[in-house]
């Protein structure tokens, strides 16, 4: 039951991951065999619900990549359901303050350390009480990652990093760029400087830094300056670009390009 992803982050070991936005257990199973350390099941922008997330958790077996689940929001009730179906690595979007980060820690912990509801005997997380020490071990197994992707979150970054129970901070480049006035252009030179400083601040705080890229050269650069958990692609984009490239080899273009 050890959380090898959390252990790796705390040990400073690089973890390479892939975004899962297709909301399909079949495609998640395919990607699970590709060699990644972690897979992100996206419940914020991907068309996932509780049951589709559960189905993907069920096919991600021990020994393979660790599933990281991104809920739609910081709602404690939704977080409770994800924990109960077996999610133990959460990447929570739109974290804007240290107070919000503390509330997230509380949502992932059982009383007296937090507010998570107790129903271990009927949850997949405890294997329906077959893991008899789950209640005592659960808090230590949870890995909480705060996603900072706003001007407010950036201003509060050091405070968020200082919250006990936050294991890492993930920079969301697209939303951060939009909030800072560079919508659709997260690679703008001014954005690059802001992101690099944020990565250094997270690293210097002793927490794991994370980000998503679709460019390998940029990904290696981020690893060099201290990123620990790096998402290097998105299943939707891999399928979209590869299918377009294959069609182009036979003289076919997308319909909107045909006129």
CATH topology: TIM Barrel
Structural class by SSE content: alpha/beta
Rg measurement, Å: 19 Å
Mean pLDDT: 95
Helices and strands in order, then pairings?
Blueprint lengths: L3 H7 L4 E6 L4 H8 L5 E5 L7 H10 L6 E5 L5 H9 L4 E4 L5 H10 L26 H8 L1 E6 L2 H5 L1 H5 L6 E4 L1 H7 L9 H17 L2 E5 L3 H9 L2 E8 H14 L11
Parallel strand pairs: 1-2, 1-8, 2-3, 4-5, 5-6, 6-7, 7-8
Helix pairs in contact: 2-3
Concise synopsis of the structure shown:
By secondary structure, the protein is of the alpha/beta class.
Describe this structure in words.
The longest helix has 17 residues, at 189-205. An eight-stranded parallel beta sheet has the order 3-2-1-8-7-6-5-4. It has one domain (4-257): Alpha-Beta Barrel (TIM Barrel). The model has no long low-confidence stretch (mean pLDDT 95). Strand 1, helix 2 and strand 2 (38-42) form a beta-alpha-beta unit. The protein contains twelve helices and eight strands. It has 259 residues and is α/β, with parallel strands linked by helices.
Features:
8 strands; 8-stranded parallel sheet; TIM Barrel; 259 residues
